[in-house]
Amino acid sequence: MQNDLKPYPAYKDSGVPWLGQAPEHWNVRRIKSMFHEKDERRCDGTGVLLSLTRTRGIIPHSEATDRLAGAENLSKYKVCGVGDLVMNRMQAWSGMFALSSLEGVVSPDYSVFRAVGSCDVKYFELLFRTPPAVAQFARLSKGIGSGFNRLYTEDFGGVLVAVPPTDEQSSIVRYLDHADRKVRHVILARQQLIKLLTEQKQAIIQRAVTRGLDPNVRLKPSGIPWLGDVPEQWDVEPMKRIALFKSGVGFPVNRQGGIGLEIPFLRVSDMTRPGNEQWIKSANSTVSRETAAELGAFLFPANSIIFPKVGGALLTNKRRLLSISSCIDNNLMGCVVQGATLSYVFTLMQQLDLGRLAKPGPVPAIGESEVEEIRVALPPSDEQSAIVRYLDGATASLDKAVDAARREIDLLREYRTRLIADVVTGKLDVRDAAAHLPDEPEEQPEPLDEEPVAETSDFDAEESDGDHSEDESRDA
Question: Whole domain around residue 58: which residue ranges?
Answer without folding.
Answer: 8-165+440-472
